[in-house]
């Protein structure tokens, strides 16, 4: 006999992916329980039994996003032969991903923060931590570039990382506002054109 309140054909992984798409499109507060259960094909008791609560479901959805759609460009950042190539690959791959026709536009994490500050303190903290991780990943690749001599010694890697993270956030907002991939790639062209100036050693104070 099927568990009470839970459909016999319930597929937790598939339901989580559909929840991720709802949160991605509407943000945390914008996604109602009715939206989520309708998209997931389950009722509220099944959702609570499988995921605990809306906050826990959102965290799982973010983890799914970061391990899949949201993580491939970060891997390219680390795997490229130079820091410049890695940063450019990250930006260009995200420009493609943010405008893919088969998914919501933009970055799920950035949009969850931009749509409105979530009422849940736990969700706010999670999103802020995700934003800090993004900057830290870029900075780590730049620091590696300094160590490997493809980024000048004395470059302000923290400021450069914050700049490129800001460019990424801007690509998301532009995509959500309807910009297509060529338009986002043009922004990447402009950002990368300033690489030499950005990485020039900062004069000592």
Topology at a glance:
Elements (H helix, E strand, L loop, with lengths): L11 H19 L2 H8 L3 H8 L2 H14 L4 H8 L3 H16 L9 H7 L6 H27 L9 H20 L4 H13 L1 H5 L6
Brief summary of the model shown:
With 205 residues, this protein is mainly alpha-helical. Helices cover 71% and strands 0% of the residues.
What does this structure look like?
There is one protein chain. This protein has 205 residues and is mainly alpha-helical. The chain has two domains: 12-65, Arc Repressor Mutant, subunit A (Orthogonal Bundle), CATH 1.10.10.60; 69-196, Orthogonal Bundle (Tetracycline Repressor, domain 2). Helix content is 71%, strand content 0%. The chain contains eleven helices and no strands. The chain has helices spanning 12-30, 33-40, 44-51, 54-67, 72-79, 83-98, 108-114, 121-147, 157-176, 181-193, 195-199. Helix 8 crosses helix 9. The radius of gyration is 19 Å and the shape is elongated. 32% of the residues are buried. The model is unreliable at 1-8 (pLDDT under 50).
- Class by helix and strand content? mainly alpha
Integer tally of domains: 2
Q: CATH superfamily of the largest domain, please?
A: Tetracycline Repressor, domain 2
Which architecture of the largest domain per CATH? Answer: Orthogonal Bundle
Short descriptors:
205 residues; mainly alpha; Arc Repressor Mutant, subunit A; elongated; Tetracycline Repressor, domain 2; 71% helix
């Amino acid at each position: 006999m099927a568990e009470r309140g839970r459909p016999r054909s319930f597929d937790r992984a598939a339901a989580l992916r559909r929840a991720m798409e709802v949160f991605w499109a509407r943000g945390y507060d914008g996604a109602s329980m009715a939206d989520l259960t309708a998209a997931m094909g389950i009722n509220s008791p099944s959702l609570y039994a499988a995921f605990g609560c809306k906050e826990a479901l959102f965290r799982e959805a973010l983890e799914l996003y970061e391990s899949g759609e949201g993580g491939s460009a970060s891997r390219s950042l680390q795997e490229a032969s130079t820091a410049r190539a890695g940063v450019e690959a990250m930006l260009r791959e995200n420009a493609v991903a943010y405008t893919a026709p088969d998914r919501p536009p933009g970055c799920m994490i950035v949009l969850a923060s931009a749509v409105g500050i979530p009422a849940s303190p736990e969700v706010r903290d999670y999103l802020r931590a995700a934003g800090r991780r993004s900057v830290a990943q870029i900075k780590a690749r730049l620091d590696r570039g300094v160590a490997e001599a493809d980024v000048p010694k004395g470059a302000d890697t923290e400021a450069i990382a914050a700049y490129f993270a800001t460019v990424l956030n801007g690509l998301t907002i532009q995509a959500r506002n309807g910009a297509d991939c060529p338009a986002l790639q043009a922004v990447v062209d402009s950002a990368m054109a300033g690489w030499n100036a950005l990485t020039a050693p900062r004069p000592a104070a």
